[in-house]
Protein: Probable queuosine precursor transporter
Organism: Rarispira pelagica
Amino acid sequence: MQNELLWFLMLIAAFAMVMISFRLWGKMGLFIWVPISVILANVQVVKLVNLFGLTATLGNIVYASTFLVTDMLSEHYGKKEAQKAVIFGLVSMIALVVLTQFALWFTPASDDSSQEHLAAIFGLMPRIVLGSVTAYLLSQFHDVWAYHFWKNRFPNQLWLRNNASTMVSQLIDSIVFCLIAFLGEFPFSVVLEIIFTTYIFKWIVAALDTPFLYLSKMLVKQKQIADLRD
């Protein structure tokens, strides 16, 4: 159960860092967390681990924390600020891909020992990049839209708008990425299995981020966020 314990601890650590960033720097702290999480997720995703009897990639937790961030921005700052965060994440993703490819194109020195390791992490296939960017845009913009859709209809049900928006967005992300990246590369049944296992872990993370959204509401109510004090 070591992997499962570490997975849970990493989840708590990621959400705690989101809350600390919000507490210390308000909106700017949330904006800063988005590129951090996108870059970390793209590095961690290359590692496969066994969790609860299933094979999964790391990176799901850190990436899923971006949905908590956009929900917090939507709740406390409005739809336009949440959409800005999505764009920040997209720009950081593109920058990561472009600049790491340049690094790989440099001819390494004769005594270099890092080229093969960097290539293993950043040597991305075009379909992976296309799937990642497309899934990110569709799922994140849906999350912002859906959050406000449910908020307008059930303004007093924070848990509903948080989970209804994030869980559907996570499903969109899993389906779009896996279909673009893996369809034709693996049998369709295998692609479906990857979608299912990936979404299960994202669903769990989405459910567990709800208390942190309530915590953010409490911090705002107690006037502990500098840029939200009356």
Notes: The mean pLDDT is 90. The chain has eight helices and two strands. Residues 2-105+112-228 form one domain. The first strand starts at residue 48 and ends at 51.
